[in-house]
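User: I'm preparing a small set of examples for a lab meeting where we compare how different chains pack in three dimensions. I only have the primary sequence for this one, and I'd like the structure in token form so I can line it up with the others. Please keep the answer compact; I'll paste it straight into my notes.
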Amino acid sequence: MTGNLLLSADGGNNRLFGCTDLTHGNTFTLVFGGTLNRLHFSLTDRLTIESSHGLLVKCRGENICLMGNPSEIIIYKVIRMNSNSITNLLIPTLPHEAANNLYVDSNSRKILNGYVPPLRSTGGRNNGKLGFIATASSQLNNNCKASNAFNCFYTGRRGTGSEWVTNDETRNFWIQVNVQT
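Assistant: Understood. Below is the structure token output for the 181-residue chain.
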């Protein structure tokens, strides 16, 4: 057959197009211009939609989702999760990427006056990052700095580092965070 195949829906009856007697091991493929643009189905596998130039989903003339070329999925509408979760997020490397809970928890600490970012050591009792300086009444040694309290740095006192530990102070010890402007 060549040319257009149009089926009339006059009379209100359903029009069936496809394969209704597919047996185990056989497949059904509906090709659109070439084998890379097709609907493919097998009883032992899922329905596969393949496209060499991406797949655009529209509803009432509006773009909903574009999958494929380039290798990303573009969503044009609000996503409602209906009490479900987004999982397996990678650690973000760009400012516009979503972050997982572990990343967020390990990169800031909520205190009464705001958030303190992780502080990296610059030596001694003073540790600075972007205007934050952590000091303490004392520290056990250079591996137990005041900034470690904000770095999620817990090794159980194994290895080369540890959480912040005082130098045998058991009362009236303190940590101070100065915000430089």
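A couple of notes for your slides: Residues 91-181 form one domain. The CA atoms of residues 137 and 173 lie 6 Å apart.

User: Perfect, thanks.
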